Amino acid sequence: MRVTADAVRALLTSDDPSARLVLHEGTLRVLGEGELRSPDYAGALEVAGRDELRDRLGGREPSAAECERIAAGLDVEISNQGG
After folding, report:
1. How many domains does the chain have?
2. Cα torsion 52, 28, 64, 69: sign
3. Is 19 helix (H, G, I), strand (E, B) or coil?
4. Which of 12, 18, 42, 60 is the most buried (most CB within 10 A)?
5. How many CB atoms lie within 10 A of CB 78?
6. Does pLDDT of 83 surpass 80?
7. Nearest to 16 by CA among 50, 53, 67, 60
8. Which domain, by its residues, includes 26?
9. Dihedral of the CA atoms 21, 42, 25, 36 (nearest 10)?
10. pLDDT for res 48
């Protein structure tokens, strides 16, 4: 599963401050902490947190190219974790 710029934007624009981008059963999802703790998502691989990404960006809105670069970096992180 490849992380897309759309997935990055979905995470960054989530209204839930606990939102996480996770890989679960081959699908990327944006989930809040409560959903992530649900048995339905047992074994999900946490890729990135909303606030973590916002901090990396210094609170500014990323360009389309930045979203692509972030997505590519997250792909590398998934590969390094064996996802």
Report:
1. 1
2. positive
3. coil
4. 12
5. 18
6. no
7. 50
8. 5-81
9. -20
10. 95
Strand order through the sheet with 27-31? 27-31, 20-24, 45-49
CB–CB of 39/58 below 8 Å? no
The token duo for 50 is: 């909303």
What tens digit of pLDDT does each residue of 14-48 get? 999 999 999 999 999 999 999 999 999 999 999 99
- 59 in Cβ contact with 4 (< 8 Å): no
Identify the pLDDT of residue 82.
66
What integer is the mean pLDDT of 56-61?
89
Neighbours of 40 (CB within 10 A): 10
